Amino acid sequence: MAASALRKLWLTLEMIRFEHSIFALPFALTGGLLAWRELGFPMAGLGWKVLWIIVCMVSARAAAMAFNRILDADIDARNPRTKGRHLPAGLLSMGFAWSFTLASGVVFILGARALNELCFRLSPVALAVVLFYSYTKRFTSLSHVVLGFALGIAPSAAWIAMTGSLDPRILWLTAAVTLWTAGFDVIYSCQDYAFDCDTGLYSLPARFGIARALWLARAMHVAMVGALVALVLAFSLGTAAWLGIGAVVAVLIWEHSLVHADDLSRVNAAFFTANGYVSILFFLFWSFDILCNRS
């Protein structure tokens, strides 16, 4: 019984690609750090706030990923690249996936309640945003941007969690994460170009072709860097933050060098490895800047 439960837990974590929480979590924590800096670095209750921010981030993403797998089960079953996923392959039941989605959503709302009143009131809105993405590939080529925004709200949510209000300056980080995510999702979706065209699903590669879509992804990442520059200026950050932008630019250049319209063999390296480096390096440089300049 215990072995069966552990196997189901492991399969669930595989289904939602739990390890990919690393993509957006460092940006959310950076939003929280900037808010903490703005408050004057108070220590009271800090540990609990950080814990609940992480709980909310992970549970919202878990709910969104599980819901996406449920909604796309029939599509995944027809796509040679995704037919081995857990629901189409019968490794997990649809009923279990629905239960997991509901449980994750409840955990998210309870976590928001533990943070503050505004987080609690906004939690259904945030949950609606991250769930809504799964529908968008059925009617708009801008589904990548919607996915980006679903991750991009995390830093602003962390700011609200720390302060109980929203400062417009943190929206530069929301913009940066939105553009970053949209850009790498365009790269990833190039793998499904033929399938999307055949089945009538919407994506930028399906609409403009792979070569043009890759140029749009590059443009999004250039705009992301611009948003990060605006963020540094808005918060008067220091040298380490600027170096962090430089590190992000270097990784993004490497990411785009891996993928070409006539060679998508290294998409996984561009998507998984490069973007993991982007988020981790960003957090390390920016947290160092924020924490080493405490006044």
Q: Describe it for me?
A:
This protein is mainly alpha-helical and 295 residues long. The chain has a single domain, classed as Tetracycline Repressor, domain 2 (Orthogonal Bundle). 77% of the residues lie in helices and 0% in strands. It is built from 13 helices and no strands. The longest helix has 26 residues. The radius of gyration is 19 Å and the shape is globular. The model has no long low-confidence stretch (mean pLDDT 92).
Task: Please supply descriptive tags for the structure shown above.
295 residues, Tetracycline Repressor, domain 2, globular, mainly alpha
Could you provide a short overview of the structure?
By secondary structure, the protein is mainly α. The chain has 13 helices and no strands.
Note the topology.
Layout: H1 2-15, H2 25-39, H3 46-71, H4 73-78, H5 94-115, H6 117-136, H7 143-163, H8 171-189, H9 193-199, H10 204-208, H11 210-235, H12 239-257, H13 267-292
Helix pairs in contact: 2-3, 2-7, 2-13, 3-5, 3-6, 5-6, 6-7, 7-8, 8-11, 8-13, 11-12, 12-13
The third-level CATH topology is Tetracycline Repressor, domain 2
Helical fraction equals over 70%
Q: What integer value in Å does the Rg equal?
A: 19 Å
**In total, how many beta strands?**
0
Task: Give the class from helix and strand content and strand pairing.
Answer: mainly alpha
Regarding CATH, which class?
Mainly Alpha
State which percent range the strand residues make up: under 5%
- Spans with pLDDT under 50 lasting ≥5 residues? none
Nearest-integer average pLDDT: 92
> What string, H for helix and E for strand, traces the elements in order?
HHHHHHHHHHHHH
CATH level-4 homologous superfamily: UbiA prenyltransferase
Largest sheet: none
Report the span from N to C terminus.
Answer: 55 Å
Count of helical stretches: 13
Which second-level CATH architecture applies? Orthogonal Bundle
- Overall shape: it is globular
State the domain count: 1
